[in-house]
Design goal:
heterodimer; A: mainly beta; Immunoglobulin-like; 5-stranded antiparallel sheet; 9 strands; 13% helix; B: mainly alpha; Cytochrome Bc1 Complex, Chain D, domain 2; two-stranded antiparallel sheet; two-stranded antiparallel ribbon; 15 helices; 2% strand
Amino acid sequence: MKLRFALAFLASTASAAQACEPPPDLAGAARIESRDTILFFRTSPPKIAIGQHFSVDAVVCAKAQGAPPAGVRVDAQMPAHRHGMNYRARVTAKGAGRYVADGLLFHMPGRWQLVFDVERPGRTERLTRDLEVE
Amino acid sequence: MAADERVELDPVEIRLILRHGPWPQPVLRDPSNRVSGNAAAGALGARLFFDPRLSSDGAIACASCHVPARAWTDGRPRAVGRAPLERNTPTVLDAGLGRWFGRDGAADSLWSFALKPITDPREMGAGPRQVAGAVRADRTNACLYESAFGEPPAAADERALVNVAKALAAYVETLRSARTPFDDFRDALARGDREAMARYPAAARRGLKTFVGKGRCSVCHFGPAFTNGEFHDVGIPFALGPGRVDAGRHEGIKRLHASPFNLLGQYSDDPTGAAATKTKHVEPQHANFGQFKTPSLRNVALTAPYMHDGRIATLRDVVRHYSELDLDRAHADGEALLRPLGLSDGESDDLVAFLETLTAPRATAVPPRAAQIAGCGP
């Protein structure tokens, strides 16, 4: 009985995590994972050009039995230079954990860090991904 | 020119150098200006650029400060219109390639930027009626206006003023600098032509290595135009006097958003609104205080003095500024982009030698007569 319960629990958690898959139009998207969250994202255009605005299309979901995200903020910074972008991204929730952030622009070459602040009631979790931009 | 002394470049340096081309860049029409690229508008703009009737006292034209023989600047530390101003006159060569216009980026289009000097009481001090009158009352101007815009000069003075600014922009877009000795070297490097590369002076090549390497100049002076088109605090004081400061980009963003002539307004001709993306997403941040636009370095040897207020007289002094940078002044809002370069005299001389190779032939030439438009007289 205990074994059957344990197997059922593992299946439910595995299936909850496996349920967070990118939709077909984000197949092959970059994946970031934290303790509570899985996030897939793709930039548009796919190759970021210095001095050109771009968007980020993301899917965010909770792992296991965590609370689903209430929202996402998107920003970027250059950690080595200690500065961010000169532009404020605007995030639009598309439903079902899908978000689109517009208006990003990287104004110099080097290592940028995309920052996703995933909001839940009472707390915010930060996920990041470094990008080398030429 | 000195023969090549085998100043070798490593693969990283080569990659960074190649990013500074090709040149010239393709001319892109401004979607917010329906007469961008229009020959009649360019011809009208060419006439008006040199016409002092656009000023309230009939004494100042755009060309009074943007003097062709001075690479389209005025050679002064700070501009002087009808009154002294706080900032150095930037060149308008290659201005059409910019994203933001003005030292503080208060304008998001070349045509809206043209409105500021025309209407500022300290510069040309003209109002919409006067500017519109300068077009309506001149037969050739009126003819060119109608040819460009498809209608006589607008009855509404403000609309006519904006269209004049669009014609000026259509002219200024054509002021493009030619290829330079650096461009010849860059392209030779791209195709591996060592014989052509050898014609580039060794001192300039050493300076170029510093530019893309130790100096990290190419981080902000990026790409074919040698500017990232954005704003930085480079340790130049911005106090104007007791209790007065030049807030630079911070104030520029506020003025941009308050302007009825920005790309979110009724005068933009862009049907998609895409041109206004930058305007929608820029917001003043604390770090913007005291930041000024990174200028292009093309023809920099011709546009002394330097910095937003013209306080630095020579290129050698500019290099000294960065070599001996005051970190206490330059660390705006904790940004850690700049550091004193600690260049030797030789390195500094070489860096200046490189910058001098960004000078295009005929950058100070008076432009050829604008295209004749049939039926519109001389």
